[in-house]
Design goal:
Elements (H helix, E strand, L loop, with lengths): L2 H9 L3 E2 H20 L2 H8 L21 H20 L3 H20 L7 H14 L8 H7 L12 E2 H27 L9 H19 L4 H5 L4 H16 L1 H4 L3 H22 L4 H4 L15 H7 L5 H12 L1
Antiparallel strand pairs: 1-2
Helix pairs in contact: 2-4, 2-6, 3-4, 4-5, 5-6, 6-8, 8-11, 9-11
Length: 322
């Protein structure tokens, strides 16, 4: 068995340019919305006491907090770069620009108050997209090329490894994030006992009390299910299985689909019981790379094809059938 060849086929499995473009638009839209709706929050944090500033990520390059006006301009620049990123306009510039600005903005935001680890996957996903040819099949740039408004020849919409490796890498980044979360649980003070019903139940109870004291609200299910220790045991074992098994699950397409659906359901379960909002996960956008998202929009993909591309697509379909 040729292990090197298998690894190459795994990492560089061809994928449609249209799929990568849809993923860019979906993930980019979420990132753009997230930053735009938190401009006031970031401005408020940037105006806080400098002693509260504990830089993380690339913000470690700073010796002191930036002036609030500069921070606001960075946020505005991030939003401004995010619009062409989502549209796929001038992507050779807007792709890397938005990815780097998003990383800078969220690193700086996390340098105040608590660190939101949920940002890690989003930033890494956008960085991969910003470095990839994510605007070749579904973008304004692609439309401009098909209309002959630029000199570079329009790329075909057929599958290519150049559009497959970014999708694969994003899937693995997502899987490794969950794997590290599982390792952190097992390596913690409780070890494997974290999955025991009583330990997880007590953790949920502490979260409910803290939420009620600090914000005056809590999720009713956290009280309703408190005596159901056996259920928390099932939830704990299932959570560790999903997290520690994530890298293995993504190796096979059908198991990856099952893993993504179950993990998506897990996040809604966490929200229902504990009220914790992993917005990127609850929206399901983090899991889109595990699915052929272009298939439900096949009609749009076909309409985007130029007459010169039609024979290529028919020939490719004939080869696959053969």
């Amino acid at each position: 068995m040729n292990i090197a060849g298998s690894l190459l086929r795994f990492w560089f499995e061809p994928a449609p340019a249209f799929r990568l473009g849809l993923l860019r638009a979906a993930i980019g839209s979420y990132a753009l919305w997230y930053v735009a709706t938190r401009r006031d929050l970031i401005a408020s944090l940037a105006s806080g006491d400098s002693e509260l500033f504990e830089p993380v990520g690339i913000a470690r390059l700073l010796d002191a907090p930036l002036p609030p006006s500069v921070v606001d301009w960075v946020v505005l620049a991030t939003v401004a770069a995010g619009i062409p990123f989502v549209l796929g306009l001038f992507y050779r510039i807007s792709g890397p620009a938005f990815a780097l600005l998003l990383m800078a903005t969220l690193c700086y935001r996390n340098s105040w108050s608590m660190v939101f680890h949920m940002h890690n996957a989003l930033v890494l996903h956008v960085l991969v997209l910003g470095a990839a040819r994510a605007a070749d099949g579904f973008s304004i740039d692609a439309i401009r090329r098909r209309m002959g408004l630029c000199l570079r020849a329009p790329p075909g919409l057929q599958e290519d490894a150049a559009f497959g490796w970014p999708v694969r890498l994003i899937c693995m980044i997502t899987a490794l994030q969950y794997f590290l979360a599982g390792v952190a649980k097992v390596a913690g003070p409780q070890g494997l006992e974290w999955a025991a019903g009583s330990v997880l139940r007590d953790q949920v109870a502490v979260n409910a009390i803290r939420s009620e004291v600090l914000s005056g609200s809590t999720m009713p299910l956290s009280y309703t299910l408190h005596e159901w220790t056996w259920l928390y045991g099932v939830i704990g074992i299932g959570t560790l299985a999903l997290e520690l098994g994530a890298p293995v699950a993504v190796l096979w397409r059908r198991s990856a689909w099952t893993w993504a659906i179950l993990t998506f359901a897990m996040h809604w379960g966490i929200f229902a019981i504990m009220g914790i909002k992993f917005r990127y996960h609850l929206a399901g956008i983090i899991f889109l790379t595990f699915f052929p998202v272009e298939k439900p929009l096949g009609w749009l993909r076909c309409s985007a094809s130029t007459p010169s591309e039609a024979p290529v697509r028919r020939a490719a379909a004939h080869d696959r059938a053969a």
